[in-house]
Amino acid sequence: MNRVRIFDTTLRDGEQAPGFSMTEEGKRKMARTLAALNVDVIEAGFAAASPGDARAIHAIAGEIEGPIICSLARSTRGDIEAAAQALAPATRKRIHIFLGTSPLHREFKLKLDKGQVIDAIRDSVAFARGFTDDVEFSAEDAIRTERDFLVEALSVAAAAGATTLNVPDTVGYTTPDEIYDLFRHLGDQVERGPEVIFSAHCHDDLGMAVANSLAAVRGGARQVECAINGIGERAGNCALEDVVMALKTRSDAFGVTTDVDTTKIMAASRMLAQVTNVSPPRNKAIVGANAFAHEAGIHQHGVLQNRETYEIMKPEDIGLATDGIVLGKHSGRHALAKRANALGFALEGAALDRAFAAFKEVADEVGLVDDARLAALLAAQDGRGDD
Ligand code: KIV
Ligand code: ZN
After folding, report:
1. Which residues contact 18 (CB under 8 A, 6 or more apart)?
2. Is the ipTM of this complex over 0.90?
3. For the chain, which end, N or C, has fewer CB atoms within 10 Å of the first or last residue's CB respectively?
4. Per-residue model confidence as pLDDT tens digits over 307-334
5. Confidence at residue 371, expressed as pLDDT on a 0 to 100 scale
6. Residues 6 or more apart in contact with residue 131 via CB below 8 angstroms
7. How far is the CA of 99 from the centre of ligand 1 (A)?
8. How far is Cα 12 from Cα 14, in angstroms, rounded to an integer?
9. Burial of 137 (0-12, 13-18, 19+ CB in 10 A)
10. How many whole angstroms from its chain centre is CA 275?
11. What ligand 1 atom has the least distance to the C-alpha of 138?
12. Which of 13, 79, 205 to mutate to test the pocket of ligand 1 (most atoms within 8 A of CB)?
């Protein structure tokens, strides 16, 4: 299968992070945006976490058509029932069960031995299958789990009816080489039917979530869990826009596709910023304000001749309408003349020299010169030229 499913967890792992909590209305708006983006799965929340989260999942399940709607659940009957109840109105629903499998989680968090963990996986997945035939199992902290135990845990989950086996790098510890090798190993060793797929869920603690997710895809993962603007616990999750655009832009390297409508990426990023009041950093890949902006004169000159000199993607492919030219103290005459022209000022010769000198002074003072400021400056220059 050459299609990678995109599982969006903006509304669950993303919302769990400090500073990103959303109202029910905000979550519903975001879910509509994710449906327009055409993600495969929307993890709408964690039903047992709070009545508000359960209500938001229920509302999203009732109004969103297209993507599978999912709720997280611990491996307890109460959590699974809460997830099933919240998801009841959904046309396509998934229950996502997680349980820690690493020695640290078994010993210090769960206080369960290996046999008890295996029993809990078997029982909870089988119980969830009573509500839906789409059950995902996550071996929390899979990366720090002994390989043979991870193979056993995932094989038991598949035998009990899980159709997606998720391998989270819960603490963002792995490396691309290591996770590639792990997915190859799991693909060889985990007993499962042909309908079962592996999924990667990478955190960004060492800044490698996207690289690790892409390596997992090369290793055989056919679902990537990610969040808009890369939000999520601590340093965040794999950024949806990064992984999707990497798979598209470098299809020669990965040979797989997603069904995401990339022209809706910018709208999704902006909607999240609006709903959470947090914008991505200017230099964020794909959606940051600088991602398609060129201030330096040499770059501007290149881009004005042929955008590919300094751009590997088209802004319109992510739904961004821009010529990418930003005017600041590093900008050159070509860019100034072009923007002035667009604003209705034809500049040549001495008039361009004068305007350029005045523009540099203002840029030194204010940094970026937006259209309103530039128009005022050019109008003032026009007046001077007439004297
Ligand atoms: O990071 C993690 O392990 C998780 C699981 C609940 C999938 O978010
Ligand atoms: Zn996570």
Report:
1. none
2. yes
3. C
4. 899 899 999 999 987 777 889 999 999 9
5. 85
6. 80, 83, 84, 87, 93, 95
7. 9
8. 5
9. buried
10. 16
11. 7
12. 13
